[in-house]
Amino acid sequence: MRHIENNTPKRHPIWLYFAVAFIAMSGLSYINFLPGLMNALVVSLKYTESQAGQLVALNGYGALFGTALAILSVKYWQWKPTIICAMSVLLLLELTTPAIISFDTLIVLRFVTGFAGGLAVGMSFSVLAKMHNTNRAFGFLLFIQFIVGALVMYTLPQLEFNFGAYAVFYVMATIALCGILMAISIPVGYFPTYTESRKSHTRVNSLGISMTIMLVIFIYLTAASALYAYVGLIGINASLNETQVSSYIAFTGLLGLLGAMIPMIQSPCIKRRPLSIISISLCLIAVLLLLQPTISITAYVVALALFFFSWPAVQSFLFAAIADISPSGRLSTISSLVSSIAMASGPMLAAFLIKPSDYSLMLTVCASLFALCAVILYMPLKTAPPTKAQSTPPYHTS
C-alpha cells in the first residue's frame, strides 16, 4: 500500500498539460514529420540518402548535448527563462538554415540547432514529470506530436509548392515560435525550481528498474526512428509518388492519436506492461510487412497504421514509468537524453545499413530490436512504482 507524500503534485488543468506537452514537442519538432524532412532533403534539395541521414543524426546529437546540459542544470536554473532562451535561439537558427549552401556548414548549423532544442526538451521533461498524472502528461506529448506530424506531412507538398524546397524549415520555425508563446503564457509558480526540502528519495531498487526501462527506451526509439526516417523513401522505392507517400503517412499518422489517448484514460483495464508489449509486437509486424520483396499499397498502408498506432502508447508508458520513479524530474530529464541519443542513432544506423534502393538489412535490424524490447520489457514495468494520479492501491500491471 502506498501513501501519498507531501510533495505529490497538485492537480493541473487540462490546458496546462497541453501547453507543457506542446513546449516539449516543439524543441525537436522535426522528429514528428521526419519522413517529410528526409523527402525534402533528398528529393527537393538533392542531397543523397546518406547525407540526409547524417544531417538528421547531427541534429539529434546536438540535442543529446543540449539535454545533457539540462540534466546538469535542471536543479538550479529556472525552467521558464531557460526554455524561452533556448527556443529563441532555435527559432533564429531555423530561419537561418535556408541561407546555408555548404553541406559542411549545414551540418554544424543543424548540430547547434539540435543543441538548443535538446536543452528546451530536457527542461520540459522535468516539468512534465512534476505533473499530477504522468500517464496523461506524456500521453498529451505523444498526442500532440502525432497531430503535428500528420498535419505537416499532409500539407508539406503544398507548402513546398508555395514556399519552396525549404518550407519544412519554415514550419519548424513556426512551431518554435508557438512554443515560445506557450512558455510565456504559463505562470512561473506552477512548477517551482528544485530545492533540498522537496528532494525526492529514489529507492536503490528503483534505480535498477529505471535503468532497465531506459535501456528499453533507447532500443525501441533507435529502431522506431530508423524506420520512421526512411519509411517515406521506402514507399517511394515501392513505386509510390511523393504526394501519395505524404498522404498515406499523414492519414495513418492520425492513428497515433488513438495510441496516444490510451495512456490518458484512467481505467483498471489500462495496464502498462501488457499494452506496451502488445504495441511493440505490432511494430514488429509492421516491419515484417515492409520486408516483403514486393510491397503492395495495402501492405504499406497497414504497416504504417500498425507502426503509428503503437509508437505513442509505448513511448508514453515508458516515460510515465520513469517519471513515477523520480517525481523531482531528474530521471525524466535523463530519459529525454536517452531518447535524444536514440532518435539520433536510429537515422545514423539506418544510413549505414541501407544500400541504394535496398532497405532489407535496415528493416531486419529494426525487427530484431523491436523483438529484443518485447523480451526485456516484462520485469521493470511489472515492478514499477504506482502513478502519482493514484491513491493508496498498488499499481498492478500484470
Automatic annotation (TrEMBL):
Q: How does it sit in the membrane?
A: Multi-pass membrane protein
A molecular-function term among this protein's GO annotations:
transmembrane transporter activity
Compartmental location: Cell membrane
Q: What is its main location?
A: membrane
PROSITE patterns (alphabetical): MFS
Pfam families on file: MFS_1
Alphabetized, the UniProt keywords read: Cell membrane, Membrane, Transmembrane, Transmembrane helix
This protein's name = Major facilitator superfamily (MFS) profile domain-containing protein
Organism of origin is: Pseudoalteromonas luteoviolacea
